[in-house]
Amino acid sequence: MALACALAASALVACERGSSTGPAPGLPEPTRAGCPAGLARAEAAVRRAERTDTAWDGPVAGPPAVPGERIVYVAQTMTNPGVAGIAGAVREAARAIGWGVRVIDGQGTPAGVQGAFAQAVALRPSGIVLGGFDPRLTSQQVAKAVGRRIPLIGWHAVASPGPSRTPRLFTNVTTRVEDVARISADWVVADSHGRAGAVLFTDASIPFAHHKSDLIRQRLAACPDIRLLSVENIPVQDTGTRTPQEVSSLLARFGRRWTHSVAINDVYFADAAPALRAARRKGAGAPFNIGAGDGDPSAFQRINSRQFQTATVPEPLSQQGWQIVDEFNRAFSGAPPSGYTAPVRIATAANSAGATAWDPPGFRAAYRRIWGGG
């Protein structure tokens, strides 16, 4: 394992702990120094994603509010800031439309999520949210809910936004994982001017996250002088205990060759900070870190204070929570899903203006108008 990781530092081979040490199938081998075309493309994409002069481009029409509904939010784990942020936004939107909400925490384990989902079905709610977990983990509970005609809406539950036949979801609310992976990798290319030693943090136990990190690997591999030093497979629920020691090990192995990091969730950088600080690394210095989701308030705080995180590709957590409620209202009304998917954005200290979240402007007013029949 150590030999494979050492080779990765010089030959674009990722070493993912607990899995194969070889290159991902289909990844190109380095053929020349630098990547001028790729760098120009990445820089243009990053400039677009950093723009702040955007307007609401989501739904402006839909069915008026159905009164008196009750929904249950089943969370993969409330220690995941994105999952918790969506839960809070669903509660806020439910108050606005006049519904009741219950949140049940799956505690981040298969048995816990299955138990939480079974409890949700037993409550016979109007609808159930699958908050950040693969429905295949709860196939029996999903089948029971479908049999009882309880609409199901996912958040990061399957790989793509929109309706799903297998598993049966009215819709899945998420940004497009391909877009998030692409712009995260492009940021590393642009920020490093096409020359970086990168580390990728992922959770291979979550198919959505594993797919995202595979896409990031492929995008980085297109630039020969972006060297993927290591892929660290750390379950999200274990980041607090495992990330500090893994970061210390990475610092010892790669030293100054480690210039950039990408993580499938910002929480990894919260737990990396103590180890980087102990190694006397500067908060505004290398490794320069970008989170490929979720953009929770603590990530923005690290970015704005320049403390071991430079950028994030934030999910619009509040907007997506309101969208989940709006999608349920469409389901209860016999209407189709809205079809809306929020665009990707990069948040940095330069463009966040001290904010601790990002959401498309005007979404609350738009949804209130829809639900009020305006």
Q: Any key phrases for this structure?
A:
single chain, alpha/beta, Rossmann fold, 2 domains, 6-stranded mixed beta sheet, 13 helices, 15% strand
Structural class: alpha/beta
Assembly state of the chains shown: single chain
The number of domains is: 2
Compute the average pLDDT.
90
What is the CATH top level name of the largest domain?
Alpha Beta
Distance between the termini: 61 Å
Q: How many individual helices? A: 13
Q: What is the CATH architecture descriptor of the largest domain?
A: 3-Layer(aba) Sandwich
In what range is the share of β-strand residues?
5-15%
Organism: Streptomyces luteireticuli
Domain Periplasmic binding protein: 71-326
Pfam families: Peripla_BP_4
Protein name: Substrate-binding domain-containing protein
Topology of helices and strands:
Layout: H1 2-11, H2 36-49, E1 70-75, H3 81-97, E2 100-105, H4 110-122, E3 127-131, H5 139-147, E4 152-155, E5 162-164, E6 169-173, H6 177-191, E7 196-202, H7 207-221, E8 226-233, H8 239-254, E9 260-263, H9 267-278, E10 288-291, H10 297-304, E11 311-312, H11 317-332, E12 347-348, H12 349-352, H13 363-371
Tell me about this structure:
- This protein is 42% helix and 15% strand.
- It has 13 helices and twelve strands.
- It has helices at residues 2-11, 36-49, 81-97, 110-122, 139-147, 177-191, 207-221, 239-254, 267-278, 297-304, 317-332, 349-352, 363-371, and strands at residues 70-75, 100-105, 127-131, 152-155, 162-164, 169-173, 196-202, 226-233, 260-263, 288-291, 311-312, 347-348.
- The strands form two sheets. It has a six-stranded mixed β-sheet, sandwiched between helices.
- Helix 3 (81-97) links the parallel strand 1 (70-75) and strand 2.
- Helix 8 (239-254) packs across helix 9 (267-278).
- The longest helix is centred in the first third of the chain and has 17 residues, at 81-97.
- The protein is globular.
- The N and C termini lie far apart (61 Å).
- Residues 1-33 have low confidence and may be disordered.
- InterPro entries: Peripla_BP_I, SBP_2_dom.
